[in-house]
Amino acid sequence: MKHINLETFANGAFTAQVNRAMEEVTKNIQDPNTEPSATRKITVTIGFKPNQDRNFVATGVQTKTTLAPALGAVTALSMGKDLRTGEVEAVEIGNQIPGQMSMEDVQTAQLSGGSIQEVDGRAVDVETGEIQEDRPANVVDLRKKA
After folding, report:
1. Are 21 and 42 in contact (CB under 8 A)?
2. CB of 71 closer than 8 Å to CB of 35
3. Is 25 buried (19+), middle (13-18) or exposed (0-12) by CB count in 10 A?
4. Alpha-carbon distance values, 56 to 45, 47, 52, 128 (Å)
5. pLDDT digits (tens, 9 = 90+) for 35-91
6. How far, in Å, CA of 80 to CA of 67, rounded?
């Protein structure tokens, strides 16, 4: 049998399909949303269908890639009930501890002025119930000997 050049086989379609499959696999390997150690595959199928007299064979070339699937995304939710409205809430937790104020929250509260009122001679935030009074400036160092 004479040697068949795969570069020119099927008018170059074989080489084009393999190169396209190699490109798909390479992109999948470089994708940060896939498992880096997963095995990728390229399967090349060459089908032969002879005629009744077996003197002519229709030949088909097909490539199939097996790629690593995209990684799933994981997140965390903090759930609770708003005590004022009674509605159930779910909030996605990012890099922030639940209940902790971010710098944006602090700036927003400062810009809005909050809801500070005087109650019994003390400045009180009526939304949170926090007493807004200045702490004494004198600090006692308990490490010093008397």
Report:
1. yes
2. yes
3. middle
4. 19, 13, 9, 87
5. 999 999 999 999 999 999 999 999 999 999 999 999 888 888 888 888 888 899 888
6. 41
